[in-house]
Amino acid sequence: MRTALIAGVLTSLVLAGGADARTLVVGNEAQFDRAVKQLRRPGGRIVLRPRLYRKLVIGPRSRRPLRIVGSRGARVQSLIFESTQHVSLGGIRVGPISGNALVQIRRSRHVVLHDLVVSARRSRFSASVLIPDSRQVTIRSSNFMHCGDRVGEFVNCVTLYRWSHDVLLERNHFHDCQGCDFVHGRFGSDLTLRRNVFERALPCSMGRYRCGHQDLVQLFAGRRLRVVGNRFGVYREGGAQLYLTNSVDYATIVNNVFVGTDPRVPGYQARMGIVIGSNRSRRLPYYAKILNNTILTGWLRRDGYAGSLRMSSRYGSVPRWKRPLVANNVIALLETPGRVCGFSRLFVSNLVIRGRSCSDFGVVGSAGIDWLGRPVRGSALIDSANRSLAPATDASGRRRGRAPDIGAIEYRG
Description:
Layout: H1 2-13, E1 23-26, H2 29-38, E2 44-48, E3 52-58, E4 66-70, E5 75-82, E6 85-90, E7 93-94, E8 101-106, E9 109-114, E10 117-119, E11 127-131, E12 135-140, E13 143-145, E14 155-160, E15 165-170, E16 173-178, E17 180-194, E18 197-202, H3 208-211, E19 217-228, E20 231-232, E21 242-254, E22 257-258, E23 274-276, E24 289-291, E25 294-295, E26 309-311, E27 325-327, E28 330-334, H4 338-341, E29 346-348, E30 351-355, E31 363-364
Parallel strand pairs: 1-2, 2-4, 3-5, 4-6, 5-7, 5-8, 6-9, 7-10, 8-11, 9-12, 10-13, 11-14, 12-15, 13-16, 14-17, 15-17, 16-18, 17-19, 18-20, 19-21, 20-22, 21-23, 21-24, 22-25, 23-26, 24-27, 25-28, 27-29, 28-30, 30-31
């Protein structure tokens, strides 16, 4: 009788119409667990009804894909991918119900998170994603906001541990988080941040130490980082919009736009676009490339440094071929060029809007760009990049051609 009852429950979960016998609709945790077990080998789709789900777990399963999608109004507090594979999750809200909300991807591979809303807005809890030790993980087209505005401990929207590999964050919107980093941690190898928007890391009131760390992206270790075609907005406190230190090796930062102001938070002026290395760390990032970015961020720091980007002075003791390469960038401010010029492997074909270049042959003056960072007619950026160091396409995916422009975006005529 028990077997017949379970079979009857699962049969009732099949979508009306029966077009796909492997599509199951669930409305609570117990039904979800049974659906995951039934689809463990054949794969299929699970639809979450508009309910509150405190804890969902996806365990070991076959290679056949499992898709989990949420109806409008479905919210999950805890979702754990445990030693699983070939699973996608989309269309739900990750948020607190009675405690902190967290998606954990542990010892898994081929996991896709898409079209999520991750938010702890108007609560005293947090909402975030943790990737400690998995491979081939993708987070795309999702909305991260207010990940922990009122939480006493440090909060990051996405946290990576050093055992994570082949992670892609693409076309996500990270915004309006008080006292947190949007992406933070260490990774093993091959992390890509592509075409995301990071904006408005706002001040909090839980103490100077807790609220003084608002780097939009801060990473401490990993090999082969690609930061491509993103837009970085303002932060209030912290080191930089993009902060890389310790053993983040083979980082390529290309086709990104960094802006230092935001009309939604008048009076803000982000101080630093990119920081590579810290004078307090034991190790510095090696073989970094900063190519064809439009860095409009730049303001006087409290320590007196004025520049859009900065390298650690400890690069003076590092062989030149391991130092960062800086080429084809628009740099809004470089009043203290020694902290860039003296510690770069190469500084070539960059345009500095305010300040000084690294040589008498450098270009200093107006860039001729609009408010989105795009060159306008007659701009000094047009056809002026170093061709051998320029990427094949710009931030929008348009081919650069034989005479590429300086900056992230090619002139369109």
